[in-house]
Write a structure and sequence with these properties.
The structure is a single chain. The chain is an alpha+beta fold. The protein folds into three domains: 7-152, PAS domain (Beta-Lactamase); 159-258; 266-424, 2-Layer Sandwich (Heat Shock Protein 90). 42% of the residues lie in helices and 22% in strands. The chain has ten helices and 14 strands. It has helices at 33-38, 42-51, 70-75, 88-91, 97-107, 154-218, 227-258, 270-287, 306-322, 380-390, and strands at 7-8, 55-60, 65-68, 112-120, 126-137, 143-152, 266-269, 291-296, 301-304, 329-336, 339-346, 394-400, 404-412, 422-424. The strands form three sheets. Strands 1, 2, 3, 4, 5 and 6 form a six-stranded mixed β-sheet that branches. Strands 12-13-11-10-8-14 form a six-stranded mixed β-sheet, covered by helices on one side. The chain starts with 6 loop residues before the first strand and ends with a strand.
């Protein structure tokens, strides 16, 4: 506790009874603040103490109330009670012994102070207080009692407690997050190892099947004999290539999910890339007697990964061909202004409005039952979306049943963009 010097206090009389000292001295001049202070009438003192906007109480040497402020009554739930002449220890029978000891020291001439102190009431409630006690002296210099100032700081302490609890909670969450992050990193590493192993174990026999099917189809080792075998080898080759593409899409989507997919970006012209991607899908469209057209300007440059962007286009065209009836039409156009825009438009069956929100969800197929026989497990569009967004671009779909579907990919441009439209049939 901090200690301050005690302060003189005016004599507690109804009015000054002694003649003022020598008028020549400041203390003896009735107009001086010092004279007013030492001869302050009790009524004025009482009015000041009662109305001061703080919890203040004046006690005699027996700790009986002499004066108190209205705020004192309010802070301690004593509104309506008359305290004058009553013992402080009678009003507060649950006062802790350490405070009584502090009062005794103060009445012996030693001021007492506490920056924060807890008052535990008999009913179990707790009040946090900041308080000061100083002895006051009579006109003859003798200690007449003590003056007590208190301030309720319970709300501040409650706020401190809430902050401390919040801090503990946040620290616990942070620790939990760190543990979960370590677990996630370990799971991600394990998943990456599984993907690498699975990719090797599945691709190796699949590539062998595709290779042998190509040999049989080309009859490089001699004629097969039965034409049916050539037809069967063609089916094996087509199915193998589709399975390989599906496997690659799943593995790529998984790598993106765990953050292991790395883009090898470079400045590239989208026009030849779009034409090459369309060329890869032209035979698939021809098998369904579909028309596939490509319109590309020269010089629409972007900063991206050629393989990833070609995969986006192949996935979009694969979906368009798959869900467009025979003899339908698919148009690919490269355009743009502030962005390089790849647009894939088909005359297919379209997508219902309520299903558009799910088209980019992995492993979700939103096409009607009429297309249930088509291959695919719902990874092409989700993968395309991720790859486009990894390039800082956007992808959107406009579709309706019977009206076909248009998928629009917008990518940030990079470098000069001279225009020279070149259709490719």
């Amino acid at each position: 506790m901090d200690r301050d010097n005690d302060v003189p206090f005016p004599a507690l009389t109804e009015a000054p009874t002694a003649a003022p000292p020598d008028p020549v001295s400041a203390a003896g001049d009735p107009r001086s603040p010092l004279w007013l202070y030492t001869h302050l009438p009790l009524d004025i003192l009482r009015l000041f103490v009662e109305r001061v906007p703080a919890a203040v109480a004046l006690f005699d040497t027996d700790m009986r109330y002499v004066l108190h402020s209205r705020r004192w009554l309010t802070d301690y739930g004593l509104d309506g009670q008359r305290l004058a002449g009553r013992s402080h220890y009678e009003v507060f029978p649950d006062l802790p012994e350490r405070w009584k000891a502090a009062h005794r020291r103060c009445l012996a001439g030693s001021p007492e102070r506490a920056r924060e102190d807890c008052f535990e009431r008999a009913d179990g409630t707790r009040m946090w207080l900041r308080w000061d006690t100083v002895p006051w002296r009579r006109a003859d210099g003798a200690i007449g009692g003590l003056l007590m100032f208190t301030e309720t700081i319970t709300p501040e302490k409650a706020w401190e407690h809430a902050l401390a609890e919040t801090d503990r909670h946040l620290n616990a969450l942070l620790q939990s997050w760190r543990v979960e992050r370590i677990r996630a990193e370990q799971a991600s590493e394990a998943k990456a190892n599984i993907l690498a192993t699975m990719g090797h174990e599945l691709r190796t026999p699949l590539n062998a099947i595709i290779g042998y099917a190509e040999l049989m189809k080309s009859q490089i080792m001699g004629p097969i004999g039965n034409p049916k075998y050539a037809e069967y080898s063609d089916h094996i080759l087509t199915g193998g290539l589709q399975l390989l593409k599906l496997l690659n899409d799943i593995l790529d989507l998984s790598r993106i999910d765990i953050g292991n997919y790395v883009l090898n970006k470079e400045s590239l012209d989208l026009a030849p890339l779009v034409r090459e991607g369309a060329a890869l899908m032209r035979s698939m469209a021809a098998d369904k007697n579909q028309t596939l057209t490509v319109s590309t300007p020269v010089g629409r440059r972007v900063f991206g990964d050629p393989r990833a962007l070609k995969q986006v286009l192949v996935n979009l065209l694969s979906n368009a061909i798959k869900y467009t009836p025979p003899s339908g039409r698919i148009d690919v156009r490269l355009s743009g202004g502030d962005s390089a825009v790849i647009e894939v438009r088909d005359t297919g069956i379209g997508i219902p409005a309520h299903a558009l929100k799910d088209v980019f969800e992995p492993f979700v197929r939103v096409q009607p039952p009429a297309t249930a026989g088509e291959s695919g497990i719902g990874v092409g569009l989700p993968l395309a979306r991720h790859l486009v967004e990894m390039h800082g671009g956007t992808i959107a779909i406009d579709s309706a049943p019977g009206r076909g579907t248009t998928v629009i990919v917008a990518l940030p441009v990079h470098g000069p963009e001279p225009w020279s439209a070149k259709p490719v049939e």
